[in-house]
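2024-03-11 09:14:02 DEBUG pipeline.ingest accepted 1 chain
2024-03-11 09:14:02 DEBUG pipeline.ingest length=387
2024-03-11 09:14:03 DEBUG pipeline.predict start
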Amino acid sequence: MKNFFIIVLDGVGIGELPDADKYGDEGSNTLCNIARSVGGLNLSNLEKLGLGNIADIKGVNKIEKPLASFGKLAEISKGKDSTTGHWEISGLFVDTDFTYFPDGFPEHIINKFLRLTGSKGVLGNKTASGTEIIKELGDEHVRTGYPIVYTSADSVFQIAAHEEVIPLDRLYEICKITRDEVLVPPLLVGRVIARPFTGASGNYTRTTNRRDFSLDPPSETILDLLNKNGITTVAVGKVNDLFNYRGIEIKEKTKSNSEGCSKLLEYTSATNNSFIFANLVDFDVYFGHRNDPAGFAGALKDFDDFLPSFLEKLDETDAVIITADHGNDPTTPSTDHSREYTPLLYFRKGKQGINLGTRKTFSDIGKTAADYFKIQNSLKGISFLNN
């Protein structure tokens, strides 16, 4: 079918990067720490691909003849955000760091937000966990109608609202105004995120109607490159938002890992000569940010169980890369992303896996995809297509 798949397991890091101390992430190792925490991971299919050859993961053995080539990737770009992670995977180096607000948003930004969105006030305006802040301020939000504004260690402006207080269309409108008119240069805020929730006092729950409003990538990505050269580009899940829909021909919105995996299965036969870029977000959203190693391990097992049905539908012309965009170690006190290496598994049916070593940049993935389609390019990184 000559399709190239990139599957991003959101938040599934595999050990602290050398500069992790600059981000407060010493000791972070999402996969290995989860494995120790739960007494070992049961990932027999990822084991066959060579996951255990990358690092010592309790319960995941090293394989003498893995089915996939294996290695790990370092991040060159600053930060530990999904945006920079995906952009670097796509062949960019993000040289300029985003703008962060560890103490909340300054008064002039909030005043501009109120004026341009027509909101009468805001609640929160601090760094917070998304689940905790709706517990703390949900009742006041319902009473006043004021949106809950908060941020995190990432470059994000998050707006939480009860779907019966601020309807989804209105919440998305507020986010778009914030993206296009409030957070303008010289500010470089990676994402404005709509965080809708439902429920009643004491039982508020975030819904799957989240939407991200991202900056445009600063230069041409693998999606742009392939799209202009007639290769069908398919984005599954959060990838659409992270690239602000640029360079994407087919946009598949999903709300769970299960939906994302269903789309991956569909595209094993639905298209030819295509590039399918998918993000499976549940690991990060439901388990990493909530410090739930057992739930994280369960989600990894679900993905592992999915793999045989997916891989058996491929033929020798297809290629698959399984990786991540950053870490999100649920065993550390922090509920934020962690600055980590990411795993690299590169599968071609019928080809013996080899050790690809420690790669210097996530961009090796985008470079490999461009070479796979034989497209001249100036993307960053070094291709491992013919290793």
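2024-03-11 09:14:41 DEBUG pipeline.report The chain has a mean pLDDT of 96.
2024-03-11 09:14:41 DEBUG pipeline.predict end
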